[in-house]
Amino acid sequence: MLDNVRVVLVNTSHPGNIGGAARAMKNMGLTRLVLVDPQRFPDPNAAARGAGADDVLDGAVIVPTLEEAIADCVLVMGTSARDRRIPWPVVDPREAAEIALDQIAELPEAQVALVFGREDSGLTSDELQRCQFHVHIPSNPDFSSLNLAAAVQVLAYELRMLVLKRQSQPTHMQKVETTALQNEIPTTAGEMEQYFAHLQQVLVEIGFLDPQKPRQLMPRLRRLYGRIRINRMEMNILRGILTETQKAIGVKAAGERRR
Q1: Rounded CA Rg of the chain
Q2: CA distance 22 to 140
Q3: What is the value of pTM for the model shown?
Q4: What are phi and psi of 114, to 5 degrees?
Q5: Cβ(50)–Cβ(24) under 8 Å?
Q6: DSSP helix/strand/coil, 91
Q7: How open is the CA angle 64-2-12, to the nearest 5 degrees?
Q8: Residues 145, 87 contacting (CB under 8 angstroms)
């Protein structure tokens, strides 16, 4: 789906911003970059800011006009931070992603353009009138102007998140202990009972729990541990703490006896 989406940068003045946009695109899986009349490109600053997105920059298409950049697109969305005199359908980045992917799902060969304007003035009114939707990023109204690459990152991120969701792919990395996947297996009920027995023994030994007056301490601790799922590595840590506590108690007791 993302192969059907192109990022169009209009009349970009600083090549570093082109590189930053290319990097943002590659981070999120977008590869198609179209440059409309860039003031300086190719340029070493673009490659430097691209930080590894050389393939996106090398594949960039340069055209003289916005009309040429979007000629084969069935859906064009332009970013704008300013109010315009003529009312136009305005969406936020998340809604823009929904509209774009719905269009591609309906027509798999559909081409979609996300158009970004000049760093200092954005898109002109004439350019925005060539877009079916205007995309507004709801930033801080007191400081609403985003860096070009940051704006590209926001829209590219929303697209990627929605693609992952629709493809039932995870949107976060599962944390896995580096030692072994076996450690991620939750503890069994039997292992938890052994731990509670060990915990109660240590609490008695250190004088925290009076077995004659337990005051519901163990049931409360059971409820506390019941709120989380402890895996085997975590259980080994907890049991190790209890064992070392018992060793420390023994050392202290032996020292007191020698006195």
Answers
A1: 30
A2: 25
A3: 0.70
A4: -110, 115
A5: no
A6: strand
A7: 30
A8: no
CA 21, chain centre distance (Å):
17
What are the structure tokens assigned to 78, written together? 């332009």
Burial 5-27 (b: 16+ CB within 10 A, else e): bbbbbbbbebbbbbbbbbbbbbb
Buried b (16+ CB within 10 A) or exposed e, 100-117: bbebbeeeeebbbbbbbb
Residue 35: both structure tokens together:
């440059």
254 touches 207 (CB < 8 A) = no
Report yes or no: 114 and 135 within 8 Å, Cβ to Cβ: yes
47: helix, coil or strand?
Answer: helix
CB of 205 closer than 8 Å to CB of 246: yes
Q: What confidence tens digit (pLDDT) does each residue in 73-85 have?
A: 999 999 987 655 5
> Tens digits of per-residue pLDDT, 40-72?
999 999 999 999 999 999 999 999 999 999 999
Beta carbons of 1 and 30 less than 8 angstroms apart: no
- Answer whether 95's CB lies under 8 Å from 41's CB: no
